[in-house]
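Service request form, structural biology core

Requester: graduate student, group of Dr. S.
Request type: structure prediction, single chain
Budget code: on file
Notes: please return the result as structure tokens.

Sequence provided:
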Amino acid sequence: QVQPVESGGGLVQAGGSLELSCAASGSVSINDMGWFRQAPGKERELVAHITAGGRTNYVDSVKGRFAISRDNAKNTVYLQMNELKPEDTAVYYCKVETLFADFWGQGTQVTVSS
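Core staff response, request fulfilled:
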């Protein structure tokens, strides 16, 4: 069993920065990791994804502003968010993929004020 726990959300003004962290407990080998977000009234969307080998991809709306990284020794994935916009406001979820199942964190709120 893997339990991802997110941290680092909060309230920030437009143009500001936040860094999210997601630490996954458990002794299972972790493959890919990703960050998703869900705004009120909208579907959950993939924000950024990183493979076990470090290859990354991003949704177009955050390219050039967000950066995903991981520390395999700590089973932790990070999301550095710069130049935040009000439309980035959402609950951000971490997803951890293993050979047998995917695991989700409980989510962390990010609110960007204009």
